[in-house]
Amino acid sequence: MFPLDGHCLAGNDHGPMSSEAFPEIQKIQYEGPSSKNPLSFKHYNADEEVGGKAMKEHMRFSVAYWHAMRNPLADPFGGGTAQRPWDDGSDSVENAQNRARVAFEFMEKLGVEYYCFHDRDVAPELNTLEESNVALDAVVDVLAEEQERTGIKLLWGTACLFAHFRYNQGAATSPNADVFAYAAAQVKKAMEVTHRLGGTGYTFWGGREGYSTLWNTDLKRELDHLARLLHMAVDHKKKIGFEGQFYIEPKPREPSTHQYDSDAAACLNFLREHDLLDHLKLNLETNHATLAGHTMMHEMRVAASAGALGSVDANTGDELIGWDTDQFPTDIYLTTQIMLEILEVGGFTTGGLNFDAKCRRESFEPVDLFHAHIGGMDAFARGLKIAHAIREDGRLSDFVNDRYSSYNSGIGAKIESGDVGFEELEAHVLANGEPDLKSGRQEMLENLINEFI
Ligand code: XUL
Ligand code: CO
Fold it and tell me: Is 7 assigned a catalytic role?
């Protein structure tokens, strides 16, 4: 979800800035599970080791700038409610620079070591590309200073290719070549500032790379154009020496009726078809997975099977609302599943858990940003500990290994190695008769998981 929808931030008439935006909030501390202090961690203890690795290294939490700093908390029936006293609501570079400092104060107090942004969240889009680029550089100067001061790092950057009027029919998949060119120019600059800030990655989310109706759409040409843009980005990456990881972020719909990057499998097929699989991994988001009719675990497993599990946009949807509600994840079952998949691939390398999530419209005070992130971090801390315990216990993986053990020797090993064909298999059946099948034991395994949760 992207917040720049024309609604102003509420409550911006609070007079001049104090030196701190959250003066009444100290650095959030780990106080353990028995603490009743809502502004403390009950489970996330950054330096505590789980399986020989600090929790913060396992998780690599990131704040999504567009939600934390820019989302006015509007909905289709009402304008923004968010009170952000430090923000004067203007498009000035000074306001953007000041907001960047506030973002770092927030992240420092929260104890999050990464952030992600779109070019247009951090700096205003002005009348020309040139002016917008100058504004972006001026804000990136502050981001660089603040990174240096705090040690907080950029997980990934991206370009907003969906909010401006020119992108109303897509960016790389627009029918208009001049729009393609504009998108390319914007990606070029966004990659360069990401590189300048030492970003560990760069994400492509095709906000409007899809269609509203096929009656006006040349689907094949649009897909080819999207691949062209990505190849140009790969070339530019080499040219500027940017070594961060490229990600593509699947989402099936919203804002488009159909988006080309609809799910992990569609993205992998697209990347493979266009010879891009070596250059991009997937950035998977829970609410996008569920919109696509999948679980997050499914999407992660599909990506991991292709060696393409890159990063996670950590949020959740609402079972009763059918759109991208971008809520903070609090469901321990979900965070356990995500951490199981992350541990299974050996942990994040370039990626992390980016809270692509916003407060509810009713939670409009600045302190709600803390409550929301603390809850997400604690939920993931529990998920990590539970996932680690499940792996240490070994019964789950033993069961799965045993379930496939008929492929470890005999005819199964020959099937896997390609040493037999239909004739040998027919002879095998004629000699051995009916297979001896074992139960899948789903209920037993669900009970086993609950032993740990
Ligand atoms: C939109 C979404 C985006 C991407 C970055 O649903 O998830 O915020 O994560 O463009
Ligand atoms: Co996202």
Answer: no
